[in-house]
Amino acid sequence: MDIRSAPRLGLVVPPENPTAEPEFSRFLGSGMHFHTTRFPVLPGKGLREMLDTYNEVLPGVLAGFGMLPLDAAVVACSASHYLLSPDGDRAFCAGLSERAGFPVLSSSLATLAACEALGVTRLTLVSPYEPWLTGLSRDYWEKAGLTVDGVVPVPAGDRYDPYRVTTRTLLDRIRRHDVPEDTTLLFTGTGMFTLAALDELGGRHPDRVMLTSNLASAWWALRTAGAAQDGGPGGHPQLKRLAGAAAAREEHAHA
């Protein structure tokens, strides 16, 4: 594919998020280019106030892409959209899409789209969030009609910080919990590095469905732009796994 002709994704991330771009780069492979803008730095604001402000300023942040021709945009900050509820999130993103002139979706709605495509109805949340935010996350998924079987909390040492969670901590926390075999593991949020953990867990449990906010968002972006849903030759194995499962289910539904 000519580099000029590849579809383009706009990515909106929190200012300190170290994870979204590296993971999107691995997922998208040669299937799609992405261009990033960041929410503003908000000194002195607590987390809840900061998340509310992200929603308030998001139209202006998206406008910062100017006339760059985008095929889609992902808001890679699930936490701010948990505040809206699924119906509120859909209405908000529909308004953003109309104003921007291209599809805009939150990572939380992209995750719901992946759940629907895969026929997922039950989740176990793997959450690096503070307990109150984990509660908001759980409420969001349950209001969307999904059953949450349980939560695997993943603090980073003595506090909750998704940007500091290590692969070893992530795997150790999952091992300590009795996770039902028929539940989907959902690694919440866009800021926790998950690729190494997904690879190891996928080797041990090849039939278990595992989703992350970034994985679901990359899949939605590729599908929406009409690109290869598995990321093309450079796409990550976990994306190929998700895209293959979604395609097989769709084919079965139309058989």
Automatic annotation (TrEMBL):
Region (Disordered): 227-255
Coiled-coil residue spans: none
Recorded superkingdom: Bacteria
InterPro entries, alphabetized: Iso_Racemase_Enz_sf (IPR053714), MaiA/AMDase (IPR026286)
Name this polypeptide is given: Arylmalonate decarboxylase
